[in-house]
Amino acid sequence: MPQTRNSVTVNLFALLFDIIDTENQGRRIILIWLWNAT
After folding, report:
1. Distance between CA atoms of residues 2 and 20, nearest Å
2. Hey, CA dihedral for 20, 26, 28, 31, is it positive or negative?
3. How many domains does the chain fold into?
4. Which of 4, 11, 17, 23 is packed most tightly, with the most Cβ within 10 A?
């Protein structure tokens, strides 16, 4: 997978969780999980 496509996906997830989770805790967990899964 191209790195640019990965960045876009991560950014979209970050935006999504930034809106949902104002404390940013869930966002960090999901981002870490995403990086580990890729």
Report:
1. 27
2. negative
3. 1
4. 17
